[in-house]
Amino acid sequence: MPYADITGWGKCVPPAVLTNQDLMTFLDTSDEWISSRSGIKERRISHVSTATLAAMAAKRALAAADLDPADLDLVILGTACPDTLIPNAGSAVQDAIGAVNAAVFDLNAACTGFVYGLSVGTAMIRSGAMKKVLVIGADRIPYFLDYTMRDVSVLFGDGAGAVILEACDEECGLIAERLGCDGDARDILAARDSGTVRERFAGVDGFYDVNFEGQEIFKRAVRGMGEAVTSVLDKAGKSAEEIDLLIPHQANIRIIETLMKRLKTPEEKVVVNIQKYGNTSAATVPIALCEALEEGRVKPGDTLLTAAFGAGLTWGAGLIRWGKRVTPLSECKEDLPPSDKTALELLQPWIEGCQQAVAARG
Ligand SMILES: CC(C)(COP(=O)(O)OP(=O)(O)OC[C@H]1O[C@@H](n2cnc3c(N)ncnc32)[C@H](O)[C@@H]1OP(=O)(O)O)[C@@H](O)C(=O)NCCC(=O)NCCS
Asked: Mutation test of ligand 1: which of 23, 116, 150, 151 has the most ligand atoms closer than 8 Å to its C-beta?
């Protein structure tokens, strides 16, 4: 049975930076509160669509693997923020990168979307059905936020990350995983009217009814990710000390620290970039993986542990045995189209729309 080596990786974060100070211009908050409670200093706001971010990350991953997009058998786009529901956003990515021979689907497991996608893509290769798979995590959660809610609207940012999986005979890639979902708690992190449940022609246009119970999510995240990593380590017959690098979902620095404590993982073995990007949902894990590779923190044959949780409440963990190559084979010279707008300018219509909608509701 073939394994699914990770042969390419790429990320795309939009250029506009939204700092904690920017948030203080319209929310009753402070840099001190946001950094001490979440670890976040700044996040990025996109001037392009989810599919455009995803396609750029994908092009960079294809370059790193030196792979012709026409050779891809499958594109999995992990996202909870598709630009359109019909058709899926993955088809726009396929079109943009020229993956003309690939099957394509979106996978919505919210922040766990990349870990779920990695599992599905790996299984397709291991079954022998496919040989080359592109897995992307891309999200724009800030699009859905209620900018009058100071707890939730400081946490998220936009971004995308991608990997290429290729069939290989040596034991590498995702070697064990555990995925799950606590559907009984699906309402505690929700944009309640974000699909066909929304009454057409009624309600306040453009406003999403966001429900966010931070402390309960926090507790469940710690439990879900904790159980998932323990189960994955058991499955693989590994101890936590054998992990070379922990790449956790970046939702809150205190959640990451709790996981580190549980696994007794020292700081130098953990990838943390939440201060720069906030929670980019399905993109946190692949972006963190890319940065770890860029910084030379992944060595050939290393054992990586990843864990994530998100709306649903989905959760999951995966153990990855890295292959031989830790440097890209080539580089993609393209970039996103330029924008002259600041992050606050990009957000302004949504901030005003939310303020007006909340005022109208009394
Ligand atoms: C949201 C979160 C950071 C809040 O941290 P917390 O320590 O639980 O804070 P609390 O909710 O207890 O709020 C404490 C106080 O800070 C206030 N507060 C909330 N957001 C604030 C903000 N941005 N700025 C200043 N004060 C804020 C609250 O109103 C509350 O005030 P009160 O005590 O007067 O009522 C935390 O619960 C969290 O990260 N949860 C997980 C959420 C998550 O990651 N979701 C994504 C899943 S993928």
From this structure: 151
The pLDDT tens digits of the residues spanning 282-317 come to 999 999 999 999 999 999 999 999 999 999 999 999
**Structure-token pair, residue 303:** 């054992």
CA 281 to ligand 1: nearest atom: 48
State residue 39's pLDDT score. 98
Going by alpha carbons, the residue nearest to atom 24 of ligand 1 is 29
pLDDT digits (tens, 9 = 90+) for 226-256: 999 999 999 999 999 999 999 999 999 999 9
In this structure, the residue with its CA closest to atom 18 of ligand 1 is: 151
Residues 114 and 11 sit within 8 Å (Cβ to Cβ): no
Do residues 132 and 73 lie in contact, with contact meaning Cβ atoms separated by under 8 Å? Answer: yes
CB count in 10 Å sphere of residue 169: 9
Domain ranges of the chain: 3-361
* Beta-carbon count within 10 A of 50 CB: 28
Ligand 1 neighbours by CB, cut-off 6 Å: 29, 33-34, 37-38, 111, 150-151, 154, 189, 214-215, 217-218, 251-252, 279, 309-310
Token representation of residue 67: 């792979």
Domain spanning 3-361, CATH architecture: 3-Layer(aba) Sandwich (3.40)
Q: Exposure pattern of 51-61 as b/e (b: 16+ CB <10 Å)?
A: bbbbbbbbbbb
Nearest to 80 by CA among 250, 255, 228, 281: 281
pLDDT digit string, tens, across residues 16-27: 999 999 999 999
Bridging pattern class, strands 189-191 and 210-212: antiparallel
Kindly give the parts of the chain with pLDDT less than 50: none
Q: Whose CA is nearest to atom 39 of ligand 1?
A: 252
